Amino acid sequence: MDVLVIGSTRGTGNLVVHHLLERGHGVRAMVRSREQVSALQQRGATAVRGDLEGSLDGVVEGVDAVAFCAGSGSSTGPDATLRVDLHGAVRVMDACAAAGVQRFVMLSSIAADDPMRGPAAIRHYLAAMHARDRILATSGLSATIVRPGGLTHGPGTGRVQVGVPTLAERGSIPREDVAAVLVGCLERDDTIGATFEVIGGDTPIADALDAVADRVS
Ligand SMILES: NC(=O)c1ccc[n+]([C@@H]2O[C@H](COP(=O)([O-])OP(=O)(O)OC[C@H]3O[C@@H](n4cnc5c(N)ncnc54)[C@H](OP(=O)(O)O)[C@@H]3O)[C@@H](O)[C@H]2O)c1
Q: Which CATH number characterizes residue 167's domain?
């Protein structure tokens, strides 16, 4: 499968690139600057220039799926959240629809189901995630929406918990495990239509995705 990874240069998206290549998939990594191209190409990905606040010309054409892992970050303020995380993502969805790219896996956030109960400091972000997830779920694309708890840089465990933890039990999860979950979803059409929370846990990722798929069907 050829996958466009958006947010490929850092964090979870960079780990998604790694997992996809390791599992024999083709990766088209979207990058914003010329300097980022060679690092990704050296790892075996194809790089394409694109910006969620700028041109997305030609970025999605010809791939089989999109993994959306980008974000403006917590220090950029509500305006960037709207421009990048919400409007940028919707523009990618529109580009997919126009190009006939159906499969779309979204890295969202825990508590996006109920943003107004989230901490005041990130309510705008959760509201953007909520709107984005709703738009994707009703877009007609073949979507899976993954809502992790707090992301850590800890080593991957290969084990997670899926379900709907309350806000009080928000939990955390290594980016490495989130990346494995996102790639697992891309590889499993039976997760199409699913929206689920995921935090660190004891269940092997494949078994957790079986449970996700059971809930869809
Ligand atoms: N932090 C948490 O605890 C948490 C919890 C749940 C969900 N999430 C979600 O997970 C996402 C990923 O977080 P992360 O920490 O793994 O990643 P990250 O290190 O914040 O990396 C963000 C990625 O987005 C890209 N990006 C930013 N603005 C862009 C733009 N205008 N156009 C194209 N690409 C752009 C960055 O590219 P550049 O290198 O070019 O800047 C980078 O590759 C967050 O954005 C958030 O939505 C986070």
A: 3.40.50.720
Alpha carbon of 182 to ligand 1 centroid (Å): 15
Known catalytic residues? 125
Beta bridge partners of 46: 28
Give pLDDT, residue 76.
83
> Count of domains in the chain?
1
Q: Whose CA is nearest to atom 47 of ligand 1?
A: 71
Whole-number Å distance between alpha carbons of 182 and 105: 7
Q: What is the pLDDT of residue 168?
A: 59
CA distance linking residue 179 with residue 46, whole number of Å: 19
CA atoms of 70 and 167, how far apart (whole Å)? 23
* pLDDT over threshold 80, residue 87: yes
State the distance from the centre of ligand 1 to the C-alpha of 217, rounded, in angstroms. 31
The type of residue at 189 is D
Sign of the dihedral defined by the CA atoms of residues 160, 165, 171, 174, in that order = positive
Question: Which residue range(s) make up the domain with 164?
Answer: 2-216
Q: How far apart are CA 100 and CA 60, in angstroms?
A: 9
User: What are the pLDDT digits (tens) for 29-48?
Assistant: 999 999 999 999 999 999 99
Rg of the chain over all Cα atoms, to the nearest angstrom: 16
Asked if residue 190 lies in contact with residue 107, where contact means CB atoms within 8 angstroms, the answer is no
Task: For residue 5, give Cα distances in angstroms to 48, 106, 165, 202.
Answer: 10, 10, 28, 28
pTM over 0.90: yes
Plot region of 155 (φ>0 → left; ψ -120 to 50 → alpha; else → beta): beta
